[in-house]
């Protein structure tokens, strides 16, 4: 994820709808932290769902790769 040294990234982020449980689970499983929530950001059918914002710092990713959590 952070292997491209040309970009020199410190953080990556991802967003997903709050009802997308597989996506939320995948992000958490790989060490992403929930930074925030935009309430009722997505309308899917007749229902409104929050947008969840997750992020991961390079140091956190390095630790995750080293320890597995």
Summary of the model, kept short:
With about 70 residues, this protein is α+β, with helices and mostly antiparallel strands. The chain is about 30% helix and about 45% strand. β2 (about 35-45) and β3 (about 45-55) form a beta hairpin.
What percentage of residues falls in helices of 4 or more residues?
25-40%
- Unreliable runs, pLDDT <50, ≥5 residues? none
What is the molecular shape?
A: elongated
Profile the largest sheet: 3 strands, antiparallel
Order of helices and strands: EHEEH
Distance between the termini: 16 Å
* Average pLDDT number: 92
Structural class assignment: alpha+beta
Approximate strand percentage: 35-45%
Strand element count: 3
- Output the number of helix runs: 2
Strand order of the largest sheet: 1-3-2
Radius of gyration: 14 Å
List the helices and strands and how they pair.
Elements: E1 11-17, H1 21-29, E2 33-44, E3 47-57, H2 58-67
Antiparallel strand pairs: 1-3, 2-3
Describe the model.
With 69 residues, the chain is of the alpha+beta class. The chain has 2 helices and 3 strands. It has helices at 21-29, 58-67, and strands at residues 11-17, 33-44, 47-57. A 3-stranded antiparallel β-sheet has the order 1-3-2.
């Amino acid at each position: 994820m952070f292997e491209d040294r040309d970009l020199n990234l410190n953080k990556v982020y991802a967003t997903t709808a709050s009802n997308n449980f597989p996506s939320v689970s995948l992000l958490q499983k790989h060490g992403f932290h929930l930074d925030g929530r935009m309430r009722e950001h997505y309308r899917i059918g007749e229902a409104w769902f929050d947008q969840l914002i997750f992020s991961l710092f390079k140091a956190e990713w390095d630790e995750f790769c080293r320890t597995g959590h």
